[in-house]
Amino acid sequence: MSRSIDRDLSRFKKIVRGKVREQLRKYITHGEMIGRQGRDLVSIPVPNIEIPHFRHGQKGSGGTAQGDGEVGQPIGKGQDDGDGEGQAGSDPGNEHYREVDITLEELAQMLGQELELPRIEPKGKDQISSEKDKYNTIRRTGPESLRHLKRTYKRALRRSIMSNEYDFVRPNIVPTRDDRLYRGWKTVTQPETNAVVVYLMDVSGSMTDEQKEIVRIEAFWIDTWLRSQYDGLETRYIIHDAVAKEVDEETFYHTRESGGTRISSAYKVARDIIAEHYSPAEWNIYCFQFSDGDNWGEDNKTCLEMLIQDLLPVCNLFCYGQVESPYGSGEFIRELKRIHDTFDNLVLSEIADKEGIYDSIKAFLGKGK
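The structure corresponding to this sequence follows.
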């Protein structure tokens, strides 16, 4: 039978997760949790929740329904209605927030439920296998670092009692060599379905910090969902203006160039990375491109040819998100719409501002590919 405090704690956790789920769209849009990610947990600020409880008054102060008063009369302070007039106060407000730890796995489940995302069915029959050691057996010998203390103690206690050596007044259990038990392991082969995500972003002068923040927030949620669907997920980052290069995550979100824009340069780098490291027969490949739609006019034809010949045939999804910018022309998405109906793994999204992140994620991941 579970203790009352355990039931209360379980109930409290359900209430908290319900609050997070209710406000998930706000978190997706504004990204309060970005930057708070730990190894397995994310801390989310939620309004403080007070569990209702009884508070006893002073002894002898009267019982329920005692004293003067009329039926229906309000009780307690604040009986008179007012317009809220008065001087500014110095006391803190009533709305407080607490940090609540949510696992990334729970966060992914909430995201899938909120956006009604289908489970992804990995393409291809080939799977990458890896060998892992599982500590699921007990051995009589082994290194001291793997000694099973609980089982060793119980074995020593049993021996002491059976040999009439156990002193019930002053018990002293000293395990012998024969009492020691150790954790044992077996090497098992487990199939792993792996995926790689390739992010491509225009960092020319027309892409401002606001547009990059939109990309950062959306990429966090994309990663959260894909990691819940695959055993292994690798991420690669490509930036470009007129020339493209692969960079690390920090550089990806904080680089700004002043040159022109040639999108095909990024496609070439993505194509080479995939060809060298990620066989489509063994990897599920996702490309997410973000741009304000600017591109050198004569480069559009090259981009479409590379998409059709090199990238779309090997990708589970190729997603293009056009982030609205006061400096960008927004023309590139019109070029992609020319081939959009031909390829069901090409997904387009126009993101006007942070409020558009929610619908963009659903558009990208809603196909279950």
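The chain has a mean pLDDT of 78.
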